[in-house]
Amino acid sequence: MKSMVEMQREVDEYIGQFKTGYFSPLANLARLTEEVGELAREINHTYGEKKKKDSEEANTIKAELGDNLFVLLCLANSMGIDMTESFNETM
């Protein structure tokens, strides 16, 4: 299992291969908002009254949580925030 530090490093290495690097914090926040919406949709399909249409993609809550974590780590990395420290301060 990867630590938060390892996850942040892996995201940084992945983003580092692109010339543009990280999006701005505001753009990352917009992306995170989009991903939270996709997570909400999956939770609604799984636990809510609105079931998925046959034509809709077969995403999962697990996959959407992973997408949210990736974008959250991008946001933190772009602002130089250590998520382990952030989590420890919260707890």
TrEMBL record:
It holds the Pfam family MazG. InterPro entries: MazG-like_dom, MazG-related_YpjD, YpjD/YvdC. Residues 23-91 form the NTP pyrophosphohydrolase MazG-like domain. Gene3D superfamilies: MazG-like. The keyword Chloroplast does not apply. Keywords: Hydrolase. GO terms for molecular function: hydrolase activity. CDD domains: NTP-PPase_BsYpjD. PANTHER family: NUCLEOTIDE PYROPHOSPHOHYDROLASE (PTHR42692:SF1). This is Nucleotide pyrophosphohydrolase. The lineage of its organism: Bacteria, Bacillati, Bacillota, Bacilli, Bacillales.
